[in-house]
Amino acid sequence: MESKRQQKVARQLQKDLGEIFQRELPHAFNGAFITVTNVRVSPDLGIARVYLSFLAAKNKALLMETIEEKNKTIRQLLGERVRHQLRIVPHLQFFLDDTAEYAEKMDKLFAGIVIPPAPAEDEE
C-alpha cells in the first residue's frame, strides 16, 4: 500500500514527465506520441517506475531503447522541475504499458465468441 506522500510524488512525477515528453523532447523520439500512464514510487522516493504508452510508434522496442539512452537527460530535466519539492530526484525505470493493447485483444476475442441460444424449458 502506497503512502499519501508516495501517491503525491507519483502524481507530480507523472505530470512533469508527461510535459517533458510532449514539450521538451518530442523531436528525440521520431514523432512518437508518448504518454506516461502510471508512476510508482518506492517508499524511500529513490526509485520511480514509469509506465509508458506509445501512439504512432512503429518499433516500440527501439523507442524504449532510445528512452533508456536518454534517461540521464530526462532525469536532469525532471530535476530542474522538482528541485524545490524533492530532496533527491528519483532514478527512473521505464516500462512499456501494454494494457490498451491487451484490452483491445480481449475485446476482439469476446467479439469472436459465438454463444448458442439456450434451449427452451418445454423441450426438456
Can you tell me about this structure?
The protein is an alpha+beta fold. The protein has a single domain (4-112), classed as GMP Synthetase, Chain A, domain 3, CATH 3.30.300. Helix content is 45%, strand content 19%. It contains four helices and three strands. The chain has helices at 4-24, 60-69, 71-82, 99-111, and strands at residues 33-41, 47-55, 91-96. The protein has a three-stranded mixed β-sheet with strand order 1-2-3. A hairpin with a 5-residue loop joins strand 1 and strand 2 (47-55). Helix 1 packs across helix 3 (71-82). The termini are far apart.
How large is the radius of gyration?
21 Å
The fold-level CATH name is: GMP Synthetase, Chain A, domain 3
Give the termini distance in whole angstroms.
Answer: 53 Å
Q: Averaging pLDDT over every residue, what do you get?
A: 88
Tell me the series of helices and strands, N- to C-terminal: HEEHHEH
Short structural summary:
With 124 residues, this protein is an alpha+beta fold. The protein has a single domain, classed as GMP Synthetase, Chain A, domain 3, CATH 3.30.300.
How is the secondary structure organized here?
Layout: H1 4-24, E1 33-41, E2 47-55, H2 60-69, H3 71-82, E3 91-96, H4 99-111
Parallel strand pairs: 2-3
Antiparallel strand pairs: 1-2
Note the main attributes of this structure:
alpha+beta; 3-stranded mixed beta sheet; GMP Synthetase, Chain A, domain 3
